[in-house]
Structure prediction request, 439 residues.
Amino acid sequence: MNETQELRIVVVGLGYVGVTAAACLSSQGHEVFGVDINEAKVAALNEGHSPIVEPGVAELVGAAVSRGKLQASSTLPDLDTYDLAIVCVGTPSAADGSHNMTFIAESARQIATAAARTSTPLTVAFRSTFRPGTMENLIEPIFLEAIGSNFAEQVELVYNPEFLRESTAVADYFAPPKIVVGTSQGRHSETMAILHDGIAAPIFETGFREAEITKFIDNSWHAVKVAFANEVGRVCAAYDVDASVAHEIFVSDTKLNISPYYTRPGGAFGGSCLPKDVRAMQSIARSAAVEAQLLNSLLETNASHKSFQLNRVLSSVNPGGRVLLVGLAFKAGTDDMRESPNVDLAAGLLERGYQVRIVDPFVRTSSLVGQNLGQVMTELPNLRSLLIDEKDVDNRDFDLIVLNSAPSNALELDAARVLDLRRIATSATDPTRTREHEA
Ligand SMILES: NC(=O)c1ccc[n+]([C@@H]2O[C@H](COP(=O)([O-])OP(=O)(O)OC[C@H]3O[C@@H](n4cnc5c(N)ncnc54)[C@H](O)[C@@H]3O)[C@@H](O)[C@H]2O)c1
Prediction:
């Protein structure tokens, strides 16, 4: 790597992502060699023309080619003088909706074979969108086969998704919403740090899988937002509501609506408002003959989540085991148990013969009234005998302690027995699930 922190970069795949990257990187002073199997794209680029239409790219390509900073070929150059290869080949949809990985596998094999002919260090960053596990299950084995078991000493593999929007891609390149750098152990990559030098954005250095799934979560979320906006827009139209005014009010709420609130994977929704009002909104749409598939799916997906949480508990304790539930109301700090997912969980465990006890310092059976009393007594008729006082909790009395909400300071819990349902953990971070895999 030279002193001016300019990199020599090969960009593989000269589509929308690759050409934009090549144009922007060469404009920053990096030396860029583009590779594409499409000869027409290669010829266009070498003549100083952009093979894609994207505002600002043609000018950057023309300037970079005339300064000798950008060239292209249909074959890879010798990699020994390059610091970095960025892979931007296509991942089109296969018939079953999955990604067709042919181009990824082929370009990875070409780079791995070329890297095997050199002994100089090389970073290979994949930008194409592909499913979690691809770096470990497809890319690493290709490099292992071509270079050998010590390939990681020469080649640093990185997954580095990009978040450009077509039509504003150049501006987005220099001001992205975030930078995500995935490596096998979430390690720092100095080459990627140089690559992103001067770009102001939050940087996440993480594992391969978290980096790989980022783009799918983002794009699914964008699709959810558009579908939601249009469904409520259609409901508004059916009821003679000005959808633009409703939208203005909706987005003005950056505390609860347009905010991280309600986005953390964890507990199901419940309580006295969300399920009731979602049902009512479904009814409002239905009675005006508005098709609202997204709204109609909400209670169903919430029910699936409750089953998922119940199964986490069931797989963490032997049949008939002793389970302490921490938190019964739909959230901490209230005694409101109407449509609380925690009540469903307790009932599900009791139904299956588990010995359940519950601590919730805010729930006093003697003070319950109205629907709050009626609903919980229907599902948990012996609630009084299930509730125990915090001060009477002895960890040794339980095989598993399930956290539905934050325990109070008065409760000292044995971490080895705790399953925290407020988070969706991986097998690496959830001790009970790890134990289950080891069994
Ligand atoms: N278009 C976007 O805005 C965008 C944004 C983020 C991520 N992505 C992802 O980035 C990837 C690329 O997207 P795109 O829109 O640029 O695709 P594209 O289809 O426009 O371009 C892909 C290019 O790769 C080339 N190619 C295929 N195999 C090759 C090989 N072995 N060697 C060299 N070149 C090869 C193709 O000829 C083509 O020119 C996809 O996975 C896509 O999902 C795209």
Q: What stands out?
A: Residues 47 and 266 are 54 Å apart (CA to CA). Confidence is low (pLDDT under 50) at residues 431-439. Residues 12-18, 35-38, 41, 88-91, 103, 106-107, 127-129, 162, 164, 166 surround nicotinamide-adenine-dinucleotide (CB under 6 Å).
